[in-house]
Specification:
single chain; mainly beta; 7-stranded mixed beta sheet; 2 helices; about 10% helix; about 30% strand; globular
Length: about 260
């Protein structure tokens, strides 16, 4: 077999192996440590999660994972997933909630009611205090039926506060609780997504069952053991961007794109 044909055969096998891996989905990362975010993908921001790519990973945060656990997953638990395009990080939440509370606390105090929180550290400096590229963005269930492009947001901490980030959000009720579909503009945090880029990242769920004080607090990052992400970015987990038009995960990347394969 000629050397050129042999090289071509090897490349074909590698390419098909990559396709097989791609069909299995994106590397899920590790819950509480790393979320692997595939890009470029764009989703329609409407609260309907049916158009999310089947290859994305959903990280489950059970009722026991947080500083205020719930008695069971139906009372309070959540799953989230992320994808990205050139302009936005999209974050989707499936919130399992058997008692829905809304409009008791709004604006900067929406964390006391049913709400989800997304934390971004654009530079991943892991500093002990917020800097110009760190934010908490809190999205309450009070956004159901609201303006997706101008949602009511909390996260009023640090210099780059949630309500000023330009984040968009669609929130809808579901048969299992409620769901959130958010778009966070990369320009706000001066992020340019590229293959292998890692940023600081975390998600939380606030659950109120009785219109009093918050009843349950669930947290994704395993380093955030004291509900301190609102003031300490060093306890965030991480999110890594992976180009899905190259490969599926860092372990199974092709060294070259298909278009660059040549036979001499």
């Amino acid at each position: 077999m000629k050397a050129g044909v042999l090289i071509f055969t090897i490349l074909i096998v590698s390419f098909l192996t990559s396709l097989t891996a791609f069909s299995a989905g994106i590397d899920p990362g590790k819950v509480g440590v790393m979320y692997v975010c595939g890009f470029p993908y764009t989703v329609k921001l409407d609260g309907n999660l049916d158009d999310w790519p089947s290859v994305v990973s959903w990280h489950k945060v059970p009722c026991t994972r947080g500083t205020q656990p719930a008695p069971d997953d139906k009372d309070a638990s959540y799953e989230f997933a992320c994808v990205a395009d050139a302009d936005f990080l999209y974050v989707a939440f499936k919130v399992y909630d058997d008692t829905k509370v809304v409009d008791e606390n709004t604006g900067c105090d929406v964390w006391k009611d049913d709400s989800v929180e997304v934390y971004i550290d654009g530079g991943n400096e892991k500093a002990k205090a917020y800097d110009a590229n760190d934010s908490q963005v809190t999205i309450g269930r009070d956004n159901i039926g609201g303006d997706i492009n101008k949602p009511k947001l909390g996260g009023c901490v640090g210099a780059l506060q949630g309500p000023t980030t330009g984040a968009k959000a669609a929130v809808v009720d579901t048969d299992y609780g409620w769901a959130v579909e958010a778009a966070l503009p990369f320009a706000t945090w001066k992020i340019t997504p590229k293959d292998g880029l890692v940023i600081g990242f975390n998600t939380h769920l606030n659950d109120d069952d009785d219109k009093g004080e918050r009843d349950h607090k669930l947290i994704w990052s395993e380093k955030d053991i004291a509900d301190s992400s609102w003031s300490d970015p060093s306890v965030f987990g991480e999110l890594k961007f992976v180009r899905t038009d190259f490969a599926v995960s860092p372990e199974s990347k092709l060294a070259t794109t298909w278009a660059s394969v040549k036979v001499r």
